[in-house]
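Budget justification aside, the reviewers requested a transparent look at the raw inputs and outputs of the sequence design task funded under Objective 1. We therefore reproduce one unedited record. The lines immediately below are the structure tokens for a 541-residue chain.
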């Protein structure tokens, strides 16, 4: 037929166009056979032709003939039923009253009117009688199962219900109609003048779909919250459901140490608004401000001291109260010295072995800071390779002048790693790897070194029976390991996590030496090409 001939010409032209795009120097025989089979299907040809006709119709910018097809169909049906009907009229009535056609006509009218918003209830007729027209505002919001995204408080002087906060990203914030300081009078026609704040919050949370608020705008309605770009690393664990001080537990944002928080508002000195970086929830939540949390920690410590009579001393060099640390994204630039990589490990991690293996695989990119020692040099050793060999007097002088990041004594000889040894490695444009005791982190966390801290801990079996070396990564080649030794290893890891976990960038669970080396290599490679969160003080200095 003429139509099939036209379709055949159409897909032949398309096939020819695809053929012209193929490279002439390649073998496309199989591809051509496949394409020919595809384009030989009649169903595809019909679909392509329909698509082309729809595109042509779309380019004509069609407009609906009428916007009330549903009501017109109802009018016709009533007219048909008003008198005797012929066979054709009965068939028409059956079609007009069928649910499928009525649904199609309803969709047509919706699209024709371009009315896609939910249907809101009519305005109340008497609201102007209660308040002056220029001072009242009726706000209609559409929310699903999400919270409204605003908190309220009772003004102690006037007793009015005031909007205390508008949570960034919530329904109230997205509307742009509810602001801090607005006075709330009604919710869905129900007066809130004599209700408690918790009753009002429950009324708001139970409202689904459309919600109508009667509000007296704040005096400075134009003063809106400005979203900031402040990022904080959380240094403590927070669960709003356990916090009796929070103004609204449901609006709280839970987090754990190490989480990165974007603080979007610090207008309230007690409760900040924040979002968790990487969280899909766009609505901000309440978190205690740095000053408020420090005050809470201080009061909590006084309570403990008052009950026990003992002071709880902080670690040397550790901030008195750990709350938040302002951070920013940092990526090493080609002209900058490589970042220092610091390895700390719990009992049984054997991080020196791990460090040496990774360096041995690529000594041109990675190196170790050569330590100092007071022991005599052996015949096969070279100065500045295995150690820097110094006298006890010189070692003590350097220790007195704080030139070591850490040092100690072993078999009546002293050993230490100096700051200059790290700088020497970085001056050669190599990434320096050091393994230290966790206490040294307070000395190394500076803008000069920008350390990336890896906490290595062995995977410790939970079984209470003795494990062989073959089944216990912690045992390694040292043979069997007792349950008491496993418990010591667990306590060691737990202690480091509690005291220094907030300073750790990555936790490496050591299953075995090979997998641990591979994971550490991956970390080092990403450090050279990816951005990471670092304290903002490291960049500003």
């Amino acid at each position: 037929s003429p139509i099939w001939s036209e379709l055949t010409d159409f897909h032949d032209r398309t096939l020819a166009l695809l053929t012209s795009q193929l490279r002439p120097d390649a073998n496309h025989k199989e591809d051509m056979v496949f394409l020919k089979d595809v384009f030989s299907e009649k169903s595809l040809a019909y679909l392509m032709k329909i698509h082309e006709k729809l595109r042509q119709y779309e380019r004509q910018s069609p407009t609906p003939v009428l916007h009330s097809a549903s009501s017109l169909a109802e009018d016709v049906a009533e007219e048909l039923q008003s008198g005797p009907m012929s066979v054709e009229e009965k068939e028409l009535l059956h079609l007009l009253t069928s649910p499928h056609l009525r649904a199609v006509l309803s969709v047509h009218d919706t699209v024709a009117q371009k009315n896609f918003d939910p249907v809101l209830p009519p305005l109340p007729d008497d609201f102007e009688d209660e308040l002056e027209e220029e001072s009242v505002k009726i706000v209609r919001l559409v929310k699903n199962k999400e919270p409204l995204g605003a908190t309220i408080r009772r003004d102690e002087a006037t007793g009015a219900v005031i909007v205390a906060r508008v949570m960034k990203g919530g329904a109230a914030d997205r509307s742009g109609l509810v602001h801090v300081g607005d006075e709330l009078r009604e919710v869905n026609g129900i007066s809130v003048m004599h209700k408690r704040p918790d009753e009002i919050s429950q009324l708001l949370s139970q409202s689904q779909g459309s919600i109508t608020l009667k509000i007296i705008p704040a005096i400075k309605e134009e003063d809106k919250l400005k979203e900031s770009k402040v990022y904080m690393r959380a240094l403590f664990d927070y669960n709003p459901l356990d916090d009796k001080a929070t103004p609204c537990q449901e609006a709280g944002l839970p987090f754990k140490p190490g989480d990165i928080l974007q603080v979007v508002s610090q207008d309230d000195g007690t409760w900040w608004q924040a979002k968790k970086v990487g969280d899909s929830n766009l609505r901000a939540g309440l978190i205690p401000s740095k000053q408020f949390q420090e005050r809470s920690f201080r009061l909590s410590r006084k309570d403990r001291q008052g009950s026990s009579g003992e002071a709880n001393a902080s670690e040397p060099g550790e901030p008195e109260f750990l709350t938040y640390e302002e951070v920013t994204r940092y990526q090493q630039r080609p002209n900058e010295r490589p970042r220092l990589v610091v390895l700390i490990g719990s009992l049984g991690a054997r991080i020196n072995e791990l460090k040496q293996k990774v360096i041995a695989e690529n000594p041109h990119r990675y190196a170790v800071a050569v330590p100092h020692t007071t022991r005599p040099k052996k015949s096969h050793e070279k100065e500045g390779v295995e150690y820097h060999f110094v006298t006890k007097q010189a070692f003590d002088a350097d220790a007195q002048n704080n030139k070591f990041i850490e040092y100690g004594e072993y078999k009546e000889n002293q050993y230490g790693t100096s700051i200059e040894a790290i700088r020497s490695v970085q001056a050669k444009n190599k990434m320096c790897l050091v393994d230290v005791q966790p206490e040294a982190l307070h000395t190394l966390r500076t803008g000069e070194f920008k350390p990336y801290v890896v906490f290595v801990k062995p995977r410790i079996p939970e079984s209470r029976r003795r494990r062989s070396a073959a089944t216990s990564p912690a045992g390694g080649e040292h043979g069997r390991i007792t349950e008491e030794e496993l418990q010591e290893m667990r306590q060691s890891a737990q202690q480091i996590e509690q005291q220094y976990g907030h300073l750790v960038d990555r936790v490496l669970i050591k299953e075995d030496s090979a997998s641990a080396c591979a994971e550490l290599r991956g970390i080092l490679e990403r450090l050279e090409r990816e951005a990471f969160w670092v304290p903002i003080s490291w960049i500003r200095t």
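DSSP finds 17 helices and 21 strands in the chain. Confidence is low (pLDDT under 50) at residues 130-134, 220-225, 311-319, 465-472. Computational costs for records of this kind are itemized in the attached budget.
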